[in-house]
Sequence to fold (379 residues):
Amino acid sequence: MILTRVRPSIYIPAWVCLWSAVSAATAACNSFTHLIIIRFFLGICEAPFFPGVFFLLSCWYTKKELALRYAFLYSGLVLATAVSGLLAAGIFAGLGGVAGLQGWRWLFILEGAATFLLGLVASVMLPDFPATKSQDWLFTAEEKEVAVTRMVRDAVSEEEHDQSVLHGLKLAVTDIKVWAFALLLLSNQSAYGFNYFYPTIVRGFNLGSRTITLVCTAPPYLLGAFISYFIAWHSDRKAERGWHISGAILFAIVGFIISAATINIPARYVASFLYICGCFGANAALYSWAASSVGQTPTKKACATAIINVTGQLGTIWSPYFFDSNDEPRYTRAMVLLLAFAVLEICVCFLLKFILRRANKKIIAEYEGTGRVPTLFTL
Fold:
């Protein structure tokens, strides 16, 4: 809701700079209590980023363009996960002990400093909403008019004239679609609880040194980024979301089953490619589907985006607890739970397609005889 009243070019970079400073401060931790305090404030500073960026992109790109843009955005997280192992291996090996600091402390300092600089650059480069004047240096008046007009035409034909914040919040809270998308994201986030434990999973393969283990965590995520691009591109091209999400998650399900069923190391490593590519491949289509389906008004879209993201992040809270050290190396219980959430994700996709199909029929009936062609929900 705040983002509808504050310039994104100030709001988003400010939070980025704050979280980078807090992240760098992790290097000063000397106890578990210090770490908990730092992580608490880090969570507060990171929380506005993804909802804010997703909302901003949905104000610039149409339904048929969003998935690929979200894929590029989300691939930053995927590639960061892939590179983090390589980066950590290099910093631990090259900077451990320099200036009397351990390698992990240098890791937080360097990553925090780099992110802070990028936040400053973003405050200058990031455009605001299409109708504002802050990006005159980037777009001509005609280009901004086109940007505004095409978003108006792309909006689903559900008229709503009250633009107040409270009304937007009411619309979001009472819309069953918002909660269905929240459940969809919750199941998705829960299904890739492996993300935080993947280096530990790879360590269980007994491939060798810590450096080799960290290097071997990268390939599945690199492939996952390319798979995400392809699924997003194809999803935009076909103007379809539900089947693309479900298809990607089916690959993840196969990966979870293989991981739970065997102790064969090559098979489990191949299985990790399946569930990493499957889960991350579904993300862009999922986020774009949600963003383009809950926006009767800008304030409703902002409130709905926040509800969906906050609810979805609950999955990242409990899913790491699926992995118990007593279950090494197969983590059978964790894989079964991840499998269950993946199945739930597919079921929610079917539910959403049913809900949106009914909503489309209602819109078509309302426009019948008017001579106008309505804009419908993407299925």
Q: What stands out?
A: The mean pLDDT is 86. The chain has one domain: 2-367.
